[in-house]
Structures are given as structure tokens and as C-alpha cells.
Amino acid sequence: xxxxxxxxxxxxxxxxxxxxxxxxxxxxxxxxxxxxxxxxxxxxxxxxxxxxxxxxxxxxxxxxxxxxxxxxxxxxxxxxxxxxxxxxxxxxxxxxxxxxxxxxxxxxxxxxxxxxxxxxxxxxxxxxxxxxxxxxxxxxxxxxxxxxxxxxxxxxxxxxxxxxxxxxxxxxxxxxxxxxxxxxxxxxxxxxxxxxxxxxxxxxxxxxxxxxxxxxxxxxxxxxxxxxxxxxxxxxxxxxxxxxxxxxxxxxxxxxxxxxxxxxxxxxxxxxxxxxxxxxxxxxxxxxxxxxxxxxxxxxxxxxxxxxxxxxxxxxxxxxxxxxxxxxxxxxxxxxxxxxxxxxxxxxxxxxxxxxxxxxxxxxxxxxxxxxxxxxxxxxxxxxxxxxxxxxxxxxxxxxxxxxxxxxxxxxxxxxxxxxxxxxxxxxxxxxxxxxxxxxxxxxxxxxxxxxxxx
Length: 455
Known about the structure:
Structural class: alpha+beta
Distance between the termini: 6 Å
Number of strands: 10
Mean pLDDT: 89
Strand content: 5-15%
Low-confidence stretches: none
């Protein structure tokens, strides 16, 4: 389960000879990591037929049962927790040796130290130590991660993590621009009295990088993620800081093959003519940045444990809603124009439809689709989107009003809402059948013919 992308020569030309050698080795590591993810997809994380009640009871005796990094087996009527580094040793040991080989070639001291720590983490399961060292890497043109991270595949508890990996070449100009957006948004959020924010993470440092990725594997390849934030544990982020990575290669590919074709298909021609392709491409990049920043601003202690499997769709919906809601500060500061904000909202609509088109039956994207449905249903039920063989004309003022209203509800659920409240909210608002209204219009677009089948 991996995806490869063509990278412009200018990015390779900026690398030293040693960096090019390191990159080639790490590309193979990323590809091989896809085998672990594929196995996790097939066998899951728990024994067949295991119930939440049974797992919770066993966890009282052995807390490793619900550790994010253990596979659960049933032996002699009891549940046994097997650490990932033991369960997947057959894959991880040769991968670790390849990473060590890359480290021996590397001439950047901090990146070299980080590679050795990553290799070691695959043998001892100490992923946090590797993360701490990753945050301190300096002056490297290459970025690389291999770790169990995303928990969306765990439909019981949203706890167990799936392996993933990527290697990227940092686009320093785009990264600096993304940093300026982040600084303005976080500064404005701290001054806001109308919303509650988890601003402890920015205080420890949030670094934003835009990267071209020759290859990516695991969950972000399966779900076609345009970006991610690390780490997923709040206590780790509060203690050491975090990183947000935008996958420029996937953003560009999805835009050319899906977003732009959907835009031209779904919107009325006179309306669509007002927004250039270049503007919408830039909006795609800033949409994912706002989404990741929105999620981090509302990352509250205990939310995952309190909301359990319902956390995923609520968190996804909040990423979109809060990101766009906070973007008004970027307009005030002059970093975004009104036209650019409109383009971001257009991409937001297109993004939701592309997710549904691609992942109706894909377990890796179920939380995303349900989260998207929360917002789409809100827009449709309140007349924010006018339909006639697609969307004839979006009402931006109404969309923004609905986003502000929905943000308030979503943040409440994340901060202190009960499981019962979240369940009632999801039942009322997350009906994915609303996407079927666009089936006929989107039927002209075939994702598989656009290069979106998994390797």
C-alpha cells in the first residue's frame, strides 16, 4: 500500500550527493513499510469476535491491551498483548537495517542522529524518543518518518495505530509562507474570547513544512492524505511541540485528477469562470493547512477517551469548520483576500465530494466521510448550496455562518461533550446519504482512470 509521485528535477538538484543516496535508500524503506500496513488492514488489531466490554475488562488487568502499539491475540481463552516491534519484527528488522545504512551515509549530524533513533524505535517500540529527536533536526533538505500513527482503522476504540512512512524534500519557500499563516492564526486564536482553544501546543512550538514526496505509504497513501500533524498524543505535543507536514505531491496530484475536474463538473459555468485554476490550486494547499491548524487548536485532553469511536468524525468536521472559521483573521491581517477565502470554501466543498467519490467503501476514510457529511448536511438544509444538476451557486455568507454555528457545537463536544451527546449529534447530522444527491453529476468522473488505484 504505497504511492509514488514524479518530482520536478529542481528539487533533486538542490540535494547534495550524500542526500541523494540517503533519499534513494529511504524511498525503499517507505515502500517496504506498506507491507506492514497491508497486513494490519487484513488482520485488524483484535481477535475476531472480541467485544469492547471484553477488551475493557481485560485492560483492567493488563493495560497493554489498549495500548496504541500492541496487537491482541487470544490464547487459551485469554487476551494477550503483543508489542508491534515483536509482532512485525519480520518486516521491521530489515527496514531498521536500511535506515541505519542511510544514517551511515548521512553527513548532517542532527538528521543522522534522528535516523539512528528511528531505526532503534522499530526494535524497542520507543517511538516518542525518536519524535523528540526529529523535532530538533536542523538544516536538512530531506524529511522522513516511519511510525505507527493514525488510529482511524480501529473502529472499536480509535486507539490502535497503523504503520505509515514517507520521505520528502522540503520546499523552503512554501514552508516559510505556511509558517506566516500559522503564526497569524495562532496569535489571533489566543486573543479570541468566543472560542476555547488548546493553545498549549503552540507555546511549545509548532513547525510547518511543505514537502514534495517521491513516495508515501500506509494510511496517508491509502486515504490520500494531503497533510498530517505529529504527534497524535496530546501529552507528547504539550511537552515537546509538534510538526505539521503538507504533502505537496499529493495535493497537486489530487487537484489535477480530482479537485479541478469536480469543480468544473459540479459548479455552474458562469460561477466557475470567476475562479482561475491557479487560484484554486493555491487554495487547495491553504485549505489543508487551515484544516490541520484547526484540529490542533481544539485538541483537548481526554476527548478521544470520552468520545471513543465518535471522536474521528467530530474531529474531522471540526478541522474543516474551525480552519475556515479562523481564516477570517488571515483576511483581517491581509494574508488572504476575500476572493482567496471564497476559493478555500470552494475547495472545501470539492474536497468533501472527492472524498465521497473515492472512499465510499474504504475503511481508511470512514471517519472523514461521516465528518464531511455533518457539514454538507448543514449547508444543504439551510440553503447555503443551491442545487440544479450539481451546485449552481454557493452562498458564501451563509456557508460561513453555518461554519461558525457548527464550530461552536463541534468544539463543545471535543472539549467536554459526553459520549451520549456525541452519539445523538452524529445520528442527527452525519447521514452520508446526502452525497448521493450528486451521484449523477459526478458519475462522469472515474477516479480509477485518474491514477488513484493503490500500488
